[in-house]
Amino acid sequence: MLTLEDDEEPNFSDTDYQLAAYAAALRVLTQYQQIEDFDIAYELSKPRQTSKTGEKSPIEELIDSAVKIACDYLVPKGFDTFIWKTLTPDERFYLKGLDMESHGEYRSGAYQELARGFGIREYTELLATGKANETHLKTATDFGTKLLNKDSVFSTSLVRNALFAIREVVRSEEVSSGKNWLRNEVLDYWNQRKTLIEIFKYLAMVGNTIPHWAKDADVSRLLAGAVENDSI
User: What are the domain boundaries of the chain?
Assistant: First the structure.
């Protein structure tokens, strides 16, 4: 699908790639009678029941693994592929979600599937609204101070720190306030600058295509330059 895709006029959405991953996983599974210690035909014929403990069947785990592999290839256009692989699943969900939003994707199911693909169970705190056909992510300004002190992977991530730096600049109208936040709060700031610059440049680029991101996108561009030109 990636080989056939037309960059100028895309034929496939992210949901298409995820559905293709499901189909490909099932096609492979049904070619075998047995994989390791479980019988394929038996597992596929079993009535699906929701486990109270959240435990998944071997079939479900294999399919989820296939979808995660597919999602690893869903790198937003313009984002560095190597840096993408260093981000957490929550960060990838947020950035890829913005890419979907920039293409007019507001279906709640699309974001639900994206979260599932990245192996994320809780993602609603990243949404400004989850209403049907209105679903979209919070902007940097929308976040404010939310999730900064929460015990979660996203709260301490580079993307979250970048978003708060944007909010600080919007609030104070001083680029230095955002840069100082990053210097003080990001662990190993000097070695993380390349990733931060990539995040800011991406937010500036994709934000310019989303009306309610206009101000935050402009600030993202300024912070990208500030971090890039920063020195001890």
Answer: 1-74, 138-228
Whole-angstrom Cα Rg for the chain:
20
Where residue 70 falls among pLDDT bands split at 50, 70, 90? low
**121: Cβ–Cβ under 8 A, 6 or more apart, which residues?**
115
Cβ proximity of 28 and 69 under 8 Å: no
Segment 196-207 mean pLDDT = 97
Classify residue 184 as exposed, middle or buried by CB count within 10 Å of its CB (0-12, 13-18, 19+): exposed
Contacts of 99 (CB under 8 A, 6+ apart): 14, 76, 77, 206
Q: What is the pTM of this model?
A: 0.79
Q: Give the model confidence (pLDDT) of 132-173 as tens digits.
A: 899 999 999 999 998 887 778 899 999 999 999 999 999 999
Number of Cβ within 10 Å of residue 36's Cβ equals 5
- Condensed to tens digits (0 to 9), the pLDDT of residues 80-131 reads 999 999 999 999 999 999 999 998 999 999 899 889 888 888 899 999 998 9
Rounded Cα gap, residues 100 and 50, in angstroms? 30
